[in-house]
Structure to design on (483 residues):
């Protein structure tokens, strides 16, 4: 067995082959209902698991399609760890193309056997990922997925993704102790120009699921509340979720507490917008008894007189004796506001594309794995402007860190906390403060549009974060080619 890696990989550790890394679940985790998905939990501060990526015939509701999965579960195995735990994942590739793993949102090294985007595991080969979650890493909801350039869209659409939970998110709030938590992994599969009559007319060639199920179900009590941990693991689709009769209050974004939670007792919202790759932690309140429908607005279903652009994803039955009105919720801590501090540099990222939508660019250039676009010294905070010069929707994401949104279309924004993915609609702009301050992130870091069909067609770039005073990497080793 072998894996295609950079010559510099030796800096990161030693390959370990021929080991069964599956481990039994451990106790000591907060109670989270993961909706029947397979869980791998750390034991004695080490998570060991094997992930086998392979094509699979997937059935969601009444629809069967050619997808892919890790360990035979389309919804994806859930990885559960604590801050400070070591993660050892044995990735086996049974796909027809090269693959790798990206640990979206984790503040871990981009080098060696960690979140290294220069790793490619060829068909029939395997690779051992081995890294430690920093002891001071924020708890929250993250995820992992294939990130092989040119194939990420197809692989993630097929199903190669899963949730990763770092324990302790609810403990950052006063008033959420004992509140039921539920994980909702959202995936959508789409076949362009599908010719199956039922799939085409009833579902418009797109299947949306929660935890691999087309008819998710939940129960609550009147006055009851839950925390929904929502991860949009679709490759390209922004989801607009609605459940009339329930009240949503966002308490976290992209794995981190949101300062929106400071106003948790004001009027909540009735819809949730979640772009590809984003995560939301939502306090859900049911004031009255009844059966309430969870829908994806803007996703067509049915045909003829049954046509609708509100796709039903599940239902929530609110019944039984009313519970006492829950106490106020307060946020204990959040990320620091970076405004007012020194700015190391100002940079502009321009999203562009050709008229045929076949080439997507950043600052006029398509991604080249052998090129470093910018070199950034560790210890600085930079201001980045992200400008979308196209008529298409894009979503900006950077690996290894989170950032602060300070303006949208030039309008200053109140500080709500940090995120790692932000929408950039057609002909719009966002302004960010990006902290390159954590020593663990030194190395080659990617940033890109997280609409994966855009990334795969060139809308990605690379930076080198280097420790000032240390010997700098002056070139980018070549990425191994797909077979």
């Amino acid at each position: 067995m072998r894996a295609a890696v950079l010559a510099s990989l030796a800096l990161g550790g030693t390959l370990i082959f021929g080991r069964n890394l599956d481990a039994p679940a451990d106790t000591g985790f907060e109670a989270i209902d993961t909706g029947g998905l397979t869980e791998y939990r750390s034991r004695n501060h080490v998570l060991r698991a094997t992930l086998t990526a392979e094509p699979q015939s997937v059935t969601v509701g009444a629809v069967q399609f050619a997808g892919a999965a890790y360990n035979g579960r389309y919804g994806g195995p859930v990885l559960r760890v604590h801050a400070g735990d070591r993660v050892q994942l044995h990735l086996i590739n049974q796909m027809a193309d090269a693959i790798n793993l990206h640990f979206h949102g984790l503040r871990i090294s981009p080098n060696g056997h960690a979140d290294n985007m220069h790793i490619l595991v060829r068909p029939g080969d395997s690779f051992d990922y081995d890294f430690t979650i920093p002891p001071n890493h924020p708890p929250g909801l993250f995820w992992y997925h294939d990130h092989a350039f040119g194939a990420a869209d197809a692989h993630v659409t097929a199903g190669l993704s899963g949730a990763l939970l770092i324990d302790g998110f609810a403990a950052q709030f006063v008033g959420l102790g004992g509140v039921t938590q539920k994980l909702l992994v959202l995936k959508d599969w789409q076949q362009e120009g599908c010719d199956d009559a039922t799939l085409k007319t009833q579902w418009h060639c797109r299947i949306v699921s929660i935890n691999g199920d087309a008819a998710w179900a939940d129960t609550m009590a009147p006055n009851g509340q839950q925390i929904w941990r929502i991860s949009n693991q679709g490759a390209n689709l922004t989801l607009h979720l609605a459940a009339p009769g329930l009240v949503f209050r966002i308490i976290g974004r992209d794995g981190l507490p949101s300062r929106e939670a400071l106003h948790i007792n004001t009027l909540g919202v009735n819809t949730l917008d979640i772009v590809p790759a984003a995560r939301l932690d939502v306090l859900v309140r049911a004031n009255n008894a009844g059966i309430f429908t969870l829908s994806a607005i803007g996703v067509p279903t049915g045909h003829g007189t049954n046509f609708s652009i509100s796709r039903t994803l599940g239902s929530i039955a609110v019944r039984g004796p009313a519970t006492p009105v829950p106490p106020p919720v307060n946020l204990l801590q959040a990320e620091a506001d970076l405004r007012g501090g020194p700015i190391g540099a100002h940079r502009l990222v321009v999203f562009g594309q050709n008229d045929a939508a076949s080439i997507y660019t950043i600052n006029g250039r398509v991604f080249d794995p052998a090129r470093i676009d910018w070199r950034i010294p560790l210890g600085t905070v930079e201001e980045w402007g992200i400008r979308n010069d196209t008529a298409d929707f894009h979503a900006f994401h950077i690996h290894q860190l989170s950032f602060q949104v300070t303006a949208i279309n030039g309008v200053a924004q109140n500080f709500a906390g940090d995120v790692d993915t932000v929408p950039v609609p057609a002909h719009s702009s966002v302004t960010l403060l990006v902290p390159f301050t954590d020593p663990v992130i030194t190395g080659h870091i990617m940033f890109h549009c997280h609409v994966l069909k855009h990334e795969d067609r060139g809308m990605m770039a690379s930076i080198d974060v280097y420790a000032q005073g240390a010997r700098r990497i002056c070139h980018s080793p070549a990425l191994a080619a797909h077979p």
